[in-house]
Write a structure and sequence with these properties.
This protein is an alpha+beta fold. It is built from 28 helices and 32 strands.
Length: 890
């Protein structure tokens, strides 16, 4: 259709403009770029134009013609790479609500703004770039200083250059615009100049200039070969194609097959995963490469799969066998490659590959005292028993209908009708359980107690089984109530927008999008598909066993495009925050709102999930406000902390193929140990006291990004009525506007909340350490030693520091898996082996202090400056003793 043709042309044009604006920018030295070896040329620096100009005649006393061409080329390249090009697409501000962005025709980053160039700008303007700056630090001034030491001479040169570019029409006057209510409007402060795209050409070149320090590639060089990079002090040299680059070699010397790639992970909806599998299995399908998580590790026959590439060494020989075993099934020949990272785990198996390729396959195991896991399997056993009783068939159909739409409404000849109150199944299920209680307990005892390991039998005693059985109906009712509240919240938003339209008021574009999004979400819940099958839904919500046995219980959901991601609370506290971006199914998402509908039907009562805390920044200590009288101690100040609940996502943009890494945010997370536990032990490890607790509560509090905390912003801006959020790094103007909107719509000011999550985990507490530096070094070292010894990922266990006073810190190790994975008891049991392994790994590194082969990790970037393997080894050697038990904790 003409509409599709127009969109395709627009999409191609945007793609070409992006390519032109990023050519040789930063480290974009891809194989394709090297092969093309393109060079951008500008009419204003062509010899026959420049040589005749007044500008050249004035400055030829200092610069040769070739030097002047290069200087102008460097400067013009900089503004080209900023996208300051005179095309109507680059003169318009696009945002996430624009149709072109939503349909994927135009791809813009989160805070995208078009820009214009001016000789000098008097005040801060996000839409303008100045050639000159009063402080002498504009990009052009900094670069010119590398060849002209005189500030006055630099400014005179740039003023003359501006006049020359204007005369030759290398820069043209433009006005930036945005769309408002479907009509274009001028942007205040958006008048200026852009490079005339009609006076720019792209030609073939065999050369480029490469910096020996920052490794950036440039098309033009400065006369003294200094690197044109803003802060770089390196020098550039002329280079050609990099034939050591595998991709360059592949494209130029060999035949190749382009990769047609799809993601295959739990974050991709099941129907899309199945579609990708189907295409992959076809001899000439639309997919010939799957980038997969362990979703493809077990039980999937891919048929003609020829090659497996592991992006890291799998945790255990069993995982390795499962992964590489996918290939070569049809023709009995498969090629397998494993990329070894710089982690101790990967480096060990790089040196001794036979241990992972032909190592012993261990019998799968899990923690036999993991309460969430035990509950799920009890629920499954109970349901299996009850469904075998014929007289319960009709009653069970009401409690466990085939599809979840029955929980939210009814279908009849008039269509779909929503329920006015949640369907109440708790009483019915309680009655059934009461009737069959003795039989059920006998079956549960036979299934669990009699086969359970002796030391863990207390966790599945008849008394505990009875407790789990009695609590089963209430847990089911909670899930149904939450689904009902979710639907009511969606209906309320839709009805409010419809009422506004009915009154004849003009709807804003984001309101129309919001209505469409929630209508689509409701329609999805009524569909009779696999994800809405009641037993599947209950497994996803953690009521029944799921694919990964221990199901996480905080969910992030996007309604358009539909996506649901679950995480354990300890992990969600880092990932589901307003400062973060989530990368899933080819898109980037941000947190749009906290879903308060799960708390109450009126959508307003959040007092039950708010706690008051006191925070002392100097030692990073946090305690409940009710536990401390801060009178006279001015350093303490009060924080409001909101319990992390399910969140709603909003798509920001597609993941660009020009991005080489994800945005990683460093948070300050502190801990507060909660009082309840199921016993433990206390003792000594050398001069340090240890406490071991079975299933103790710990509250983790996320105070925000370290960058924002240093600027005085603690927590996240959240509306306490509707739950809408903003990033703490948003501008003051955006936060102010956010507050004004919610004063109008929700009749309240936004609050700054920290976020917290409570987890029940085995805890290992060790202290006191003389300094924060010592404590962090031991924390990271023990995680590394344990990760190698027990074949686990370093982040399967985590730790926080708790400050006792100015100079004393204790480490609290906790399990990120709800209910516990069983690794922490092993650390205490095999303490000397863990310490031995940690010392061995740290001593075998050859770095001066710490590096990514030993202590450094992307998650601990905030403490990179204090991690020191020599300091760690000194303390570890003191701690290399058998833990001495003092007494049991009841």
């Amino acid at each position: 259709s003409k509409y599709e043709q127009k969109n395709n042309i627009l999409k191609i044009k945007w793609f070409l403009l992006e390519e032109l604006a990023t050519l040789t920018k930063r480290q974009r030295r891809s194989a394709l770029e090297q092969l093309g070896m393109a060079k951008v040329i500008y009419e204003a620096i062509e010899p026959d134009v420049l040589e005749k100009s007044e500008f050249f005649r004035k400055w030829k006393k200092i610069f040769k013609l070739e030097d002047l061409q290069n200087i102008l080329g460097v400067l013009l390249d900089i503004y080209r790479q900023k996208g300051i090009l005179s095309d109507e697409l680059l003169q318009r501000e696009f945002n996430k609500y624009d149709k072109e962005v939503r349909e994927g025709i135009i791809s813009v980053r989160e805070f995208y703004k078009p820009q214009v160039l001016d000789i000098e700008i008097s005040r801060n303007n996000p839409y303008k770039v100045g050639l000159l700056s009063k402080n002498g630090r504009s990009t052009a001034q900094v670069i010119l200083k590398k060849i002209l030491n005189d500030r006055k001479l630099v400014d005179e040169f740039l003023s003359d250059l501006w006049e020359y570019l204007s005369k030759t029409e290398m820069i043209v006057k433009v006005e930036l615009k945005r769309k408002k209510h479907g009509k274009p409007e001028k942007i205040r402060g958006g008048e200026g100049y852009q490079l005339n795209i009609n006076k720019i050409a792209v030609i073939h070149s065999e050369n480029r200039y490469l910096c020996d320090t920052c490794r950036q590639a440039f098309q033009y060089k400065l006369p003294n070969n200094k690197c044109p990079g803003y802060r770089c002090k390196g020098t550039v040299s002329l280079v050609g194609r990099d034939y050591d680059n595998y991709d360059v070699y592949q494209f130029t010397k060999m035949s190749f097959t382009p990769l047609l790639v799809r993601e295959h992970s739990a974050q991709v909806p099941q129907d899309e995963r199945l579609k990708a599998e189907k295409e992959f299995k076809k001899p000439n399908g639309k997919v010939n490469c799957l980038v997969a998580t362990p979703t493809l590790e077990l039980g999937v026959d891919i048929g003609q799969l020829e090659m497996i590439l592991n992006r890291n060494v799998p945790p255990q020989p069993a995982n390795y066998s499962q992964r590489v075993g996918r290939s070569g099934r049809r023709h009995r020949i498969g090629a397998n490659a494993t990329y070894c990272r710089t982690t101790p785990h990967d480096q060990h198996f790089f040196k001794t590959p036979e241990e992972i390729i032909a190592g012993n396959i261990k019998i799968p195991s899990f923690s036999m005292r993991n309460e969430p896991l035990i509950r799920k399997h009890i629920h499954s056993t109970v349901l299996t028993f009850l469904r075998e009783i014929p007289e319960l068939k009709e009653e069970l159909k009401e409690i466990f209908p085939t599809y979840i739409w029955y929980y939210i409404g009814e279908k009849n000849e008039n269509g779909k009708i929503y329920r006015n109150s949640p369907i109440y199944v708790k009483e019915k299920l309680e009655k059934i359980i009461d009737i069959y209680e003795t039989e059920l307990l006998d079956i549960l005892e036979s299934t669990f107690s009699k086969t359970w390991a002796e030391e863990y039998k207390i966790f599945v005693s008849r008394e505990n089984l009875q407790k789990f059985l009695k609590e089963m109906p209430g847990l089911l009712q909670e899930i149904i109530n939450k689904l009902f509240n979710e639907v009511q919240a969606y209906l309320k938003i839709i009805n409010e927008i419809n009422a506004k339209q009915f009154r004849g008021e003009q709807l804003e574009k984001n309101e129309e999008l919001k209505r469409k999004k929630y209508e689509s979400a409701l329609k999805r819940l009524w569909q009779e598909e696999q994800n809405n099958y009641t037993l599947t839904y209950l497994a996803q919500k953690g009521f029944l066993p799921g694919y990964s046995l221990v199901k996480e219980n905080i969910t992030a959901k996007s309604l358009e495009p539909y996506l649901e991601i679950s995480r354990a609370p300890a992990i969600a506290l880092r990932e589901f925050t307003p400062a973060n971006l989530l990368y899933a199914n080819g898109n980037k998402f941000k947190i749009q709102k906290m879903n308060f509908y799960g708390l109450s039907q009126d959508n307003r009562d959040i007092s039950s999930i708010i706690e008051s805390y006191l925070y002392k920044p100097s030692i990073e200590k946090i305690i409940l406000a009710e536990n401390y009288d801060m009178e006279g101690d001015e350093e303490w100040f009060e924080l409001q902390s909101l319990k992390l609940i399910d969140v709603e996502l909003e798509k920001v943009e597609k993941i660009s193929d020009t991005e080489d890494r994800r945005r990683i945010v460093s948070f300050l997370i502190l801990g507060d140990i909660l009082p309840y536990h199921q016993g433990g032990a206390e003792g000594k490890i050398s001069d340090y006291k240890y406490q071991w607790f079975n299933q103790r509560g710990i509250r983790l509090i996320n105070l925000g990004t370290r960058y924002q905390i240093n600027r005085g912003n603690i927590g996240y801006p959240i509306c306490p009525v509707c739950g809408e959020v903003r990033s703490p790094s948003a501008s003051e103007e955006e936060i102010k506007k956010f507050n004004e909107n919610h004063l109008r719509t929700c009749n309240t000011n936004i609050n700054w909340f920290t976020l917290h999550a409570d987890i029940i985990s085995d805890l290992l507490i060790i202290g006191n350490f003389e300094s924060k530096k010592d404590a962090y070094n031991i924390l990271e070292s023990i995680k590394i030693g344990a990760s190698y010894l027990f074949d686990m990922e370093p982040n399967d266990i985590e730790g926080v520091l708790i400050a006792e006073d100015e100079d004393k810190y204790k480490i609290v190790f906790y399990d990120t898996v709800p209910g516990g994975s069983g690794f922490l008891p092993l650390i205490l049991r095999y303490w000397k082996d863990v310490i031995d392994k940690a010392i061995d790994l740290l001593s075998n590194c050859d770095c001066e202090k710490s590096c990514y082969k030993c202590l450094l990790d992307y998650r601990n970037q905030y403490i990179h400056d204090i991690l020191d393997r020599f300091r760690a080894m000194k303390i570890l050697k003191q701690m290399k003793v058998k833990p001495k038990l003092s007494f049991e904790i009841p």
